[in-house]
């Protein structure tokens, strides 16, 4: 709980008075941000390790604060979760990202979009309807949407979560387990849930050189995923050496600064366009 406290108040400024004041300031600021277009979506490409093709993008939230500049998600998502603002914020991001990705390419495109969900959102009784409404409204093909959840989401109320995920999965939406390997839950949920992808946490990827324990762990996760028919995305790939290891382990996809940092929409669109040109040459 100490760590959580520290994270919650990472944005704490001693000049702003006590923590309760600070919290209220953040909440008011976030409400305003949602109405004022201070929130922004960045996109980070997910790349096929063997062919270099861009398979899709992960949408990542930013807060462009008028006085404080760019605030990273870890500094405000905890407050958004505690105030319940994470629900309208996530739905805003989903709508925005669906429309933006659709605007980059024609409807025949197969580019996938990954969006992060918080457990508080998944727990809402109208969670499934909220997602389906956005898909209907934006006309985004459900098969191209991947929702990322952490093992944390599954630890709360597995039976209810299973039902919701199955309902969305029945409409074509796929699911990824984010930060895979960092949770403490049993792996039995992998058989009970409609999971499509495991995202290997960057703490494992970054230890990938020759004979480290991380290499053994990553190899084991990839083998298990292949056995279960799941896709694997390695996160946080920063070096050519990490990429070579992943290639030799037959990891499917990667995401990381080596290929691209998260970019604004127009930059993402140009990157994808220039990449497609190269691939067709
Ligand atoms: P995540 O979902 O695990 O996202 C990956 C994070 O790793 C992103 O940080 C990304 O910028 C960063 N990253 C990508 N490649 C590299 C790399 O090569 N090296 C390193 N060191 N980092 C890399 P970001 O954007 O700051 O997001 C942090 C976390 O905030 C996310 O972790 C996710 O848990 C949460 N988050 C972001 N956007 C949303 C959102 O829309 N909704 C919710 N609920 N959570 C979000
Ligand atoms: Ca994620
Ligand atoms: Ca992750
Ligand atoms: Ca993470």
From TrEMBL:
GO molecular function terms listed in the Swiss-Prot or TrEMBL record: cyclic-guanylate-specific phosphodiesterase activity
Superkingdom of the source species: Bacteria
GO terms, biological process: cellular response to nitric oxide; phosphorelay signal transduction system; regulation of DNA-templated transcription
UniProt entry keywords in alphabetical sequence: c-di-GMP, Phosphoprotein
Domain EAL: 23-276
Signal peptide: none
Protein name: cyclic-guanylate-specific phosphodiesterase
Protein species of origin: Aquisalimonas asiatica
Portion of the full sequence shown: 426 to 706 of 713
């Amino acid at each position: 709980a100490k760590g959580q406290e520290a994270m919650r108040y990472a944005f704490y400024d001693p000049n702003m008075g006590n923590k309760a004041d600070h919290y209220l300031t953040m909440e008011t600021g976030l409400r305003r941000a949602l109405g004022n277009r201070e929130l922004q979506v960045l996109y980070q490409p997910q790349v096929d390790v063997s062919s270099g093709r861009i398979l899709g993008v992960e949408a990542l939230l930013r807060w462009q604060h008028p006085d404080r500049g760019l605030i990273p998600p870890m500094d405000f998502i905890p407050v958004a979760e505690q105030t319940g603002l994470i629900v309208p914020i996530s739905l805003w991001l989903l709508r925005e990202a669906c429309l933006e990705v659709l605007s980059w390419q024609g409807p025949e495109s197969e580019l996938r979009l990954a969006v992060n969900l918080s457990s508080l959102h998944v727990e809402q009784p109208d969670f499934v309807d909220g997602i389906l409404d956005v898909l209907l409204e934006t006309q985004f093909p459900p098969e191209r949407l991947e929702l990322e959840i952490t093992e944390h989401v599954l630890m709360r109320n597995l039976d209810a979560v299973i039902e919701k995920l199955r309902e969305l999965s029945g409409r074509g939406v796929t699911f990824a387990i984010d930060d895979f390997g960092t949770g403490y839950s049993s792996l039995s949920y992998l058989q009970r849930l409609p999971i499509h992808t495991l995202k290997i946490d960057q703490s494992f990827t970054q230890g990938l050189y020759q004979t480290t324990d991380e290499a053994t762990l990553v190899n084991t996760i990839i083998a298990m995923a292949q056995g279960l028919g799941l896709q694997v995305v390695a996160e946080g790939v920063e070096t050519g050496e990490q990429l070579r290891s992943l290639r030799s382990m037959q990891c499917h996809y990667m995401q990381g600064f080596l290929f691209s940092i998260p970019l604004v929409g127009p930059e993402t669109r140009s990157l994808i366009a220039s990449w497609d040109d190269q691939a067709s040459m």
